[in-house]
Design a protein that fits this description.
By secondary structure, the chain is α+β, with helices and mostly antiparallel strands. About 40% of the residues lie in helices and about 30% in strands. Strand 3 and strand 4 form a beta hairpin.
Length: about 90
Protein backbone atom coordinates (compact mmCIF):
# COMPACT_ATOMS: atom_id res chain seq x y z
CA UNK A 1 0.00 0.00 0.00
CA UNK A 2 2.92 2.29 0.73
CA UNK A 3 4.13 1.91 -2.85
CA UNK A 4 0.74 3.01 -4.19
CA UNK A 5 0.73 6.16 -2.05
CA UNK A 6 4.37 6.86 -2.96
CA UNK A 7 3.51 6.64 -6.68
CA UNK A 8 0.57 9.05 -6.29
CA UNK A 9 2.55 11.56 -4.24
CA UNK A 10 5.56 11.43 -6.56
CA UNK A 11 3.27 12.10 -9.50
CA UNK A 12 1.77 15.13 -7.77
CA UNK A 13 5.08 16.61 -6.65
CA UNK A 14 8.69 16.64 -7.78
CA UNK A 15 9.34 13.82 -5.31
CA UNK A 16 12.55 15.30 -3.97
CA UNK A 17 11.28 16.54 -0.59
CA UNK A 18 8.49 14.01 -0.09
CA UNK A 19 8.65 10.71 1.78
CA UNK A 20 6.05 8.04 2.45
CA UNK A 21 6.55 5.71 5.41
CA UNK A 22 4.58 3.55 7.79
CA UNK A 23 4.14 5.08 11.25
CA UNK A 24 6.21 3.67 14.10
CA UNK A 25 4.71 0.39 15.34
CA UNK A 26 1.54 0.96 13.27
CA UNK A 27 1.60 -0.92 9.96
CA UNK A 28 -1.83 0.41 9.02
CA UNK A 29 -0.91 4.10 9.31
CA UNK A 30 0.81 5.71 6.35
CA UNK A 31 2.57 9.03 6.94
CA UNK A 32 3.31 11.39 4.05
CA UNK A 33 6.06 13.90 4.90
CA UNK A 34 6.41 16.85 2.54
CA UNK A 35 8.31 20.10 2.48
CA UNK A 36 6.49 23.39 2.81
CA UNK A 37 6.66 23.90 -0.96
CA UNK A 38 5.10 20.51 -1.77
CA UNK A 39 2.57 20.12 1.03
CA UNK A 40 -0.03 22.24 -0.76
CA UNK A 41 0.18 19.96 -3.78
CA UNK A 42 -0.41 16.90 -1.60
CA UNK A 43 -3.32 18.35 0.39
CA UNK A 44 -4.98 20.30 -2.44
CA UNK A 45 -7.68 22.93 -2.23
CA UNK A 46 -9.90 22.29 0.80
CA UNK A 47 -8.18 18.90 1.26
CA UNK A 48 -9.65 17.38 -1.89
CA UNK A 49 -6.47 15.64 -3.01
CA UNK A 50 -5.81 14.28 0.49
CA UNK A 51 -9.36 12.94 0.61
CA UNK A 52 -8.90 11.37 -2.82
CA UNK A 53 -5.68 9.67 -1.72
CA UNK A 54 -7.53 8.21 1.29
CA UNK A 55 -10.37 7.02 -0.97
CA UNK A 56 -7.93 5.29 -3.34
CA UNK A 57 -6.15 3.62 -0.41
CA UNK A 58 -9.48 2.41 0.99
CA UNK A 59 -10.55 1.01 -2.39
CA UNK A 60 -7.18 -0.68 -2.94
CA UNK A 61 -7.25 -2.31 0.49
CA UNK A 62 -10.70 -3.68 -0.30
CA UNK A 63 -9.42 -5.08 -3.61
CA UNK A 64 -6.72 -7.00 -1.76
CA UNK A 65 -9.44 -9.01 -0.06
CA UNK A 66 -8.18 -8.13 3.39
CA UNK A 67 -10.16 -6.32 6.02
CA UNK A 68 -7.34 -3.99 6.81
CA UNK A 69 -8.12 -0.30 7.06
CA UNK A 70 -5.34 2.19 6.51
CA UNK A 71 -5.14 5.74 7.77
CA UNK A 72 -3.17 8.39 5.91
CA UNK A 73 -1.59 11.37 7.69
CA UNK A 74 0.16 14.27 6.03
CA UNK A 75 2.86 16.14 7.93
CA UNK A 76 5.13 19.05 7.08
CA UNK A 77 8.87 18.52 7.31
CA UNK A 78 11.03 20.83 9.38
CA UNK A 79 14.12 22.43 7.92
CA UNK A 80 16.08 19.77 9.80
CA UNK A 81 14.01 17.02 8.17
CA UNK A 82 12.03 16.03 11.26
CA UNK A 83 8.27 15.68 11.05
CA UNK A 84 7.07 18.49 13.25
CA UNK A 85 3.79 19.92 12.07
CA UNK A 86 0.71 17.87 11.36
CA UNK A 87 -0.77 19.49 8.27
CA UNK A 88 -3.82 17.33 7.68
CA UNK A 89 -5.00 14.89 10.30
CA UNK A 90 -8.36 13.87 8.97
CA UNK A 91 -7.08 10.30 8.88
CA UNK A 92 -9.35 7.63 7.54
CA UNK A 93 -12.30 9.86 6.77
Amino acid sequence: MKELVKYIVDTLTDGADVSVEYADNKPTEIVISASKDDIGKVIGKQGRIAKSIRTIVKAASGKQGKRKYYSVSIVEKDVSGDNATVADEDAGK
